Amino acid sequence: MNFDYNSTRSHLILAEYGRNVQNMVDYICTISDREERNRLAQVVIDMMGVLNPHLRDVSDFKHKLWDHLYIISDFKIDVDSPYPIPDRDQIRQKPETIAYPQRSIRYKHYGRTVEDMIKKAIEQPNPEHAERMALSIANFMKMAYLSWNKDSVSDDHIIQDLRELSKGALTLPSDTVLTKLDFKTAPPGSRTKTATNNQQNNNQKGAGSGGKKVMKKKVGGYSNNNNNNNYRSNNNNNYNNNRKKFQ
């Protein structure tokens, strides 16, 4: 018994149309009558539009379907297309190779951007502008250094690296004070109180007194507790008065 597996079949060129569409296109290529090929090609085009309705949102989707028909047939089908026949080389054009920079970076913790900025500063014709740019570059270098190494770094070290990267073209005075950067990290386990935590604390305080708040209902402008006390005092007075009468 012979089984038909996908691994033994021919390569499926456009998988979104399925194996049956490709088999029908291969059958059209074997027909000798040109009119019959044109009729069946139009049927296949209509079927391809039904299988992929999202192509109708594309401008000139009929042109795209005819291009797919030629691609499925591996450009072997000979029919009268209402659109120009696509070129195999243009459809299967290989992308151009991206040219990656091969220049090595002297100090990777500063990055290539610092080297480019130093080059621009050296090209400045105005010495005052070049000095300002050198100071800005040194501050940036200090920030980049501390982002990789959280330990403190001296300003002299940054000035020396700037002089080395610029090959002595950019020099800053030894008493130059760079921007002070302080990276503070929160200690582990510390969390800021949010509104949710405050609400939970309030609920816990309310639950500490029994879990329920006693609501005093006022009747006629007085609370129930006051009415009960007045009622008890009146009963006691009446009891004492009646007791005196029987003595």
UniProtKB/TrEMBL annotation:
**Composition bias, kind Low complexity: at what positions?**
192-206, 220-241
Which top-level group of life is the source organism from? Bacteria
Disordered as annotated region, ranges: 181-247
Under which name does UniProt file this protein?
Answer: DUF4290 domain-containing protein
- Organism encoding this protein: Sphingobacterium corticis
